[in-house]
Design a protein that fits this description.
Elements: E1 4-6, E2 20-22, H1 24-31, H2 45-55, E3 60-63, H3 64-86, H4 92-95, H5 99-117, E4 122-125, H6 131-139, H7 148-160, E5 163-165, E6 180-182, H8 185-189
Helix pairs in contact: 1-2, 1-3, 3-5
Length: 191
């Protein structure tokens, strides 16, 4: 049985032997300064919690699927910023053709990857999606509200005894067998 932990409360940090996986939005809020947020707490509470875990030397896992999703988000976000600043309506594909912007997105991604690789307790895990996981996702589709990235990350956490840090209410379902650390009031009021 999993537990849900409120990271906004001043409770003791998990012991050093506790390892965590980061949901992609948590990764973005902690490491990408231009990330759009929907609630003010997201840009402060999660980065502070991540910093506390780093100081405590807890192992933090980022997967290659998170990196994939993060890179897509950064590119789309930078395109949106560009469009807003210049009164344009470029698609991401058209935005990619602007070499100056392409370099800016590349630099942003490189900085984040460099930050991650310079933190000793952070590991980037290479994941390969197995057909059985895809089949399981489709078979169980009506039993959860996850997109495939979330489903796969939960499956990975379940198999590797990793707690997950997330703000995503979709992670609260019967498929979860691992602890959830969150500041999301919607999740916390239902537990």
């Amino acid at each position: 049985m999993h537990q849900i932990y409120d990271i906004t409360k001043s409770t003791p940090l998990p012991t050093q032997d506790r390892s965590f996986a980061l949901d992609t939005h948590i990764l973005l809020w902690a490491f990408y300064s231009r990330c759009a947020i929907t609630r003010a707490y997201q840009k402060t509470v999660y980065p502070e919690f991540i910093q506390s875990l780093i100081s405590n030397e807890n192992r933090l896992v980022v997967t290659t699927l998170n990196i994939n999703e993060m890179l897509h988000f950064i590119e789309k976000n930078e395109c949106d910023i560009y469009n807003n600043l210049h009164g344009k309506n470029l698609s991401v594909k058209r935005f990619r053709q602007l070499s100056e912007q392409r370099i800016m997105v590349q630099t942003e991604a490189q900085l984040i990857l460099k930050q991650l690789s310079n933190i000793p307790c952070v590991s980037i895990e290479s994941l390969t999606v197995e057909n059985s996981t895809i089949e399981s996702f489709i078979r169980e589709f009506t039993n959860h509200n996850c997109d495939f990235f979330d489903y796969y990350l939960l499956d990975y956490c379940n198999r590797n005894n990793l707690a997950i840090i997330t703000d995503d209410a979709d992670y609260v379902n019967d498929f979860v067998n691992t602890d959830i650390y969150t500041a999301n009031p919607q999740i916390l009021q239902n537990c």
